[in-house]
Amino acid sequence: MTDRHQIRQQIRQARRALSGTEQQAASEVIIRHVAGAEHLAQAGKVALYLANDGELDPQPLIDWYWSQGTQVYLPVLHHFSPGHLLFLRYDPDTRLIANRFGIPEPKLDIRLLLPKQELDVIYTPLVAFDSRGNRIGMGGGFYDRTLAAWRQGLGPRPVGLAHNCQQLPAIPTDSWDIPLPELITPDQHWRW
Questions:
Q1: Signal sequence span per UniProt (predicted)?
Q2: Any idea which architecture 4-191 has in CATH?
């Protein structure tokens, strides 16, 4: 399996096949991994995402962070810079609207905007990963562009979230791909 398109199709199908019970159990285990990692548990400002297409659902983690007093932010498609993300504050009463991909995001309000370099952690969704931290996303490059500063040692720490079934022996990479320094699945907390 070396073709990215084929990988995306197969892994997306596998994660969509997970039952609601399996999804919920995976989300709950993620909280234990995060709570047990001081640098993640004590982060003051974190970016998460709302699950789509069978992605590991971070809503229980969002709820846990809220209970800890952590500020949570969600990605929003940048209106004036295509292919880029903005991060807006997300609270339990935040009004959400569907973006052009049908994914809920906060309504753009400049008062809720946080420059990404002020985040402590960006939890990233992904389609597939390997044991070296390489990842394949949905193909739009949004997170690769967002995490580009991490490659130079700047910006928030990226942490991938995935189901166990999303791991592959090796991921084909391109020069613009940003490997993750950390990834959490229900079975393991990877750090490279």
A1: none
A2: 3-Layer(aba) Sandwich (3.40)
